[in-house]
Amino acid sequence: MIFGVFSSIMFIFYGLLGLMGIYCLYLLIKFLIRAIQALDIHLDEKRNRHL
To answer: What torsion, rounded to 10 degrees, do the Cα atoms 41, 45, 46, 50 define?
Structure first.
């Protein structure tokens, strides 16, 4: 009985950890896309200023 409850709690815990991991991956991808766009803007400004 106690092992069934414990395994159910651990299953829910691992599911939540998996969802948090997927959400962190989503946030990381969004951050990297914005960082690449910011780098492109920065490089364009540097190129156009020196011409």
So the answer is: 160
Q: Which helix (H) or strand (E) holds 12?
A: helix 2-49
**What average pLDDT does this structure show over 7-13?**
93
E-strand stretches of 1-51: none
In terms of C-beta density within 10 A (0-12 exposed, 13-18 middle, 19 or more buried), how is residue 18 classed? exposed
The SS3 assignment for 45 reads helix
Written as six digits, the tokens of 37 are 């766009």
Residue with tokens 């829910």: 12
Say what the pLDDT of residue 51 is: 52
Q: 0.70 exceeded by the pTM? A: yes
